[in-house]
Design a protein that fits this description.
Blueprint: H1 3-26, E1 41-47, E2 50-52, E3 55-58, E4 62-68, E5 77-78, E6 93-98, E7 102-107, E8 115-120
Parallel strand pairs: 1-4, 3-8
Antiparallel strand pairs: 1-2, 4-6, 5-7, 7-8
Bound molecules: copper (II) ion (CU).
Copper (II) ion binds at residues 74, 108, 110-111, 114.
Length: 121
């Protein structure tokens, strides 16, 4: 390969790397609408008798999973059947998919001081 060809080959390779990097960086700015429904997930930890985060804002279609990190059992109960877990022992989970926009308040039926809110946009 001549010196000129070698320089051209290196230039083409370098350009390819730049294009791939630009595509990678564009991904995080994708709008919510372009994310497949199946990919919309969120997690709430139950720890130290608190739901964390206490208020969670999500897009419609998101599945929320609560995980009990405490040794004590907890529940996740809303005003109706949509949010109605049984007692969750340590490391047990409970999931609900939220399809309708609105504000959903819930709490623990065992410990009335525990409260959380899901805002579905
Ligand atoms: Cu509880």
């Amino acid at each position: 390969m001549s010196a000129t060809l070698r320089i051209i080959a290196v230039a083409v390779l370098a350009t390819s790397v730049v294009i791939v990097r630009a595509a990678d960086q564009a991904a995080p700015t994708a709008s919510l609408a372009s994310i497949p429904r199946a990919a919309r997930i969120a997690t709430i930890d139950i720890k130290d008798f608190l739901y964390a985060p206490r208020t969670l804002t999500i897009a419609a279609g998101t599945t929320v999973t609560w995980r009990n990190r405490d040794a004590e059992p907890h529940t996740v109960r809303g005003a109706d059947e949509l949010i109605r877990s049984g007692a969750l022992d340590q490391d047990e989970t409970y999931s609900v998919r939220f399809d309708k926009p609105g504000t959903y308040r819930y709490g623990c039926s065992i410990h009335p001081q525990m409260a959380g809110t899901i805002v579905v946009q």
